[in-house]
Amino acid sequence: LDNGLALTPPMGWLSWLRFGCTIDCEKQPTECISENLIKRTADVMASEGYLEAGYQYVTIDDCWPEKKRGPDGRLVPDNKRFPSGIKALSRYVQSKGLKFGIYEDYGNYTCAGYPGVLGHEAIDVATFAEWEVDYVKLDGCGAPDPDEGYPMFGKHLNETGRPMLYSCSWPAYQKHPHYLAIAESCNIWRNYADIANSWHSVVGIMKWFGDHQDEFAKFAGPGHFNDPDMLVIGNSGLTVDQARVQMAVWSILAAPLIMSADLSTMKPEFKEILLNRDVIAVNQDVLGKQGLRVWTSDDKKQVIWHRELEGDARALAFVNLGDKAIDNSYSHEQMLLPIQDFFVKDLYKEEQDQILSRNDDFHVRINATGVKFYKFIPKECESDDVSENEIKE
Ligand code: A2G
Questions:
Q1: Which of 18, 110, 169, 189 should be mutated for ligand 1, with most atoms under 8 A from CB?
Q2: ipTM score assigned to the predicted complex
């Protein structure tokens, strides 16, 4: 969508994966979907380096409104959980230098049974603009005709004159999505099933994105990106190695980097992954070109992902899906690299910078259910990234 937003994949936080539809604030005061949760999250994002690293949007997913609209037909937030109202909350979030997002569904009800948009398009969009919302996720449970509804809702958004990033769940509810139309109407769009708090789920999404990449990778670019769903990193379901895999592959995919964890109890080893500047720089590369799965071993356990970056550089993720460490060498051809010399930087900084000659294979050792993630910079067009003397010996 050409609205000036999401020129690189949006980064932020969304409540769903971690907090779901927890609504009993008496029993679960720190877990429930409430203004306290959003404020607490915004505070940490602004004060602990997330905003500085690029994470900007704080978005409430499902289960925020009252079950019934107000007498004027407007959506109203649950008055126990959002006593100050949404406008005050968006102001609070914005006062921290962050941006504020909200969720609705293009059906009669949201997936969790809260009021949906059907028949209320104009008034809901006007309400969001009045609340100074910066980001709208529009889900698709019970959507009668997504091909008509999503562009129409987008037109309403546009007519408010307020820039609101438009996140569509449109293709996730279709067998044969019309990606050209989707990319014209939406800034980001969910292609596939919801992510869950497990390695199994992350592996399933990576496999699906690889298997189907020819259908939609080409529609990614500045202003419009495919969305494989939230980062699981920081929750119980992924080990540190597995979290590095998700962060690397999501960066190759030019995917939105949307966290969904309790930032106030985030362990340092996961925070370090989420804040890795070199990895984020791959995700945020200005070309906005989505990377591809370029090689899979016969036993399907080794996978190479490859993304083209500005300045003819490439990011390559060597993923080990198996439960034993791998030692292997790969040819330029397997890695889909042109036959030339490269500077190679390990983006998780376990290894020293190295040089790969045009005549050599590239040797990689990968932990079980882990990744090695490198940037390959063509040697002739030496960049500021790596200078000769940085590469000692
Ligand atoms: O509703 C759907 O399952 C959403 N999926 C999920 O992300 C979450 O918003 C949930 C809330 O009830 C898609 O948007 C594809």
A1: 169
A2: 0.97
